[in-house]
Amino acid sequence: MTSRGRQPQCWPDMWVCSALSRALTPARLRRGLLSASDCHRAAASPYAASAEPSRVRALVYGSHGDPAKVVELKNAELAAMGGSDVRVRMLAAPINPSDINMIQGNYGLLPRLPAVGGNEGVGQVVAVGSNVTALKPGDWVIPAGAGLGTWRTEAVFGEEALIGIPSDIPLQSAATLGVNPCTAYRMLMDFEQLQPGDSVIQNASNSGVGQAVIQIAAALGLRTINVVRDRPDLPKLTDRLKDLGAEHVITEEDLRKPETRHFFKDMPQPRLALNCVGGKSSTELLRHLAPGGTMVTYGGMAKQPVIASVSLLIFKDLKLRGFWLSQWKKDHSPAQFKELILTLCDLVHRGQLRAPACTEVPLQDYQRALEASTKPFVSTKQILTM
């Protein structure tokens, strides 16, 4: 019973999971065809009353360290549902660099241990408590904040910890919606008043944020100069980024060459640079910025400091800023974050924002996914499927 003396609208586990498994075919998930009516039909089964609880599995770490060594797949129990709680069956959850950093213990936000890994993903509502009004069984939801622990098959969350999203977008887009595209959109909108035709330069352009920047910039009429590390599959990567809307794709080595400035003579000097690397790469971005421009740092893959020459700061009056989505959420209301999410969903609906290149990996094969996530030159995001 809930605190108000009413039973939550809860479906018995085993039968419902079996019914949902039949409905959740990969093709239907990718097309977003599982609807609330599918779930209501499952809930109405006369066999539900005799069902037993289903097994919940989660990727848990009890100490900080190498993810391959400290993360374990364990059985877990569902928390009891209260009136303001929502029971969610996770569908898919990516492995992001921030997830790895959090497990290693060197991220700006660390959950209490032991903790379930994963800050992002998409799930489907299975049941809601009696006080829940914004969500219903069958809805798709994503985390409202970091640290929720999405690498699990099922969980009970407070309603305020979730944001409902349209269920008619592709599964991979939904699973990767709440971190990288949000970061890309806010950096493009919040630091310089860019107009159609203006240009943006970024490094780590093959990253999840980088791919989102390319697409959102194209939707806004902005032109992009995209810097990547040299690699064996560079022509293939270049073609893929240009297919997303990249105007120029160039290597770190080529960006350092003096003659490169003539390569961009057909477009205005960028007033915004987006840095996820640091070190020499960030210095080169600064060198190509227009006077008065801004470089926003949101990552440090090289694990080296940002170095800005005195002459660039004095004679070009460049600005150095930082961005962290978790801080942006603290500074803005849940309604504003929901508005951001729906803006991105609209871009997905219009075909202007696709998920990054992804490799789907079953939850039980998590070791393979973690290993791939830490390899160099991997341009696909690992997504755990439940």
From TrEMBL:
Q: Which reaction does it catalyse?
A: a 2,3-saturated acyl-[ACP] + NADP(+) = a (2E)-enoyl-[ACP] + NADPH + H(+); (2E)-octenoyl-[ACP] + NADPH + H(+) = octanoyl-[ACP] + NADP(+); (2E)-hexadecenoyl-[ACP] + NADPH + H(+) = hexadecanoyl-[ACP] + NADP(+); (2E)-hexenoyl-[ACP] + NADPH + H(+) = hexanoyl-[ACP] + NADP(+)
The organism's place on the tree of life at top rank? Eukaryota
What keywords is this UniProt entry annotated with? Fatty acid biosynthesis, Fatty acid metabolism, Lipid biosynthesis, Lipid metabolism, Mitochondrion, NADP, Oxidoreductase, Transit peptide
Q: Which residue ranges does the record assign to the Enoyl reductase (ER) domain?
A: 65-384
InterPro entries associated with the record: ADH-like_C, ADH-like_N, ER, GroES-like_sf, Mito_Enoyl-ACP_Reductase, NAD(P)-bd_dom_sf
Class of the enzyme per the UniProt entry, highest EC level = oxidoreductase
Q: Which SMART domains is this protein grouped with? A: PKS_ER
**Where does it sit, as one GO cellular component term?**
mitochondrion
Which SUPFAM superfamilies does the record cross-reference, listed alphabetically? Answer: GroES-like, NAD(P)-binding Rossmann-fold domains
Q: What is its main location?
A: mitochondrion
Which molecular function term from Gene Ontology is one that the record holds?
enoyl-[acyl-carrier-protein] reductase (NADPH) activity
Give the signal sequence positions: none
Q: Which GO terms describe its biological process?
A: fatty acid biosynthetic process
Q: What does this protein do?
A: Catalyzes the NADPH-dependent reduction of trans-2-enoyl thioesters in mitochondrial fatty acid synthesis (fatty acid synthesis type II). Fatty acid chain elongation in mitochondria uses acyl carrier protein (ACP) as an acyl group carrier, but the enzyme accepts both ACP and CoA thioesters as substrates in vitro. Displays a preference for medium-chain over short- and long-chain substrates. May provide the octanoyl chain used for lipoic acid biosynthesis, regulating protein lipoylation and mitochondrial respiratory activity particularly in Purkinje cells.
Report the sequence similarity comment from the record.
Belongs to the zinc-containing alcohol dehydrogenase family. Quinone oxidoreductase subfamily.
Designated name of the protein: Enoyl-[acyl-carrier-protein] reductase, mitochondrial
The gene name on file is MECR
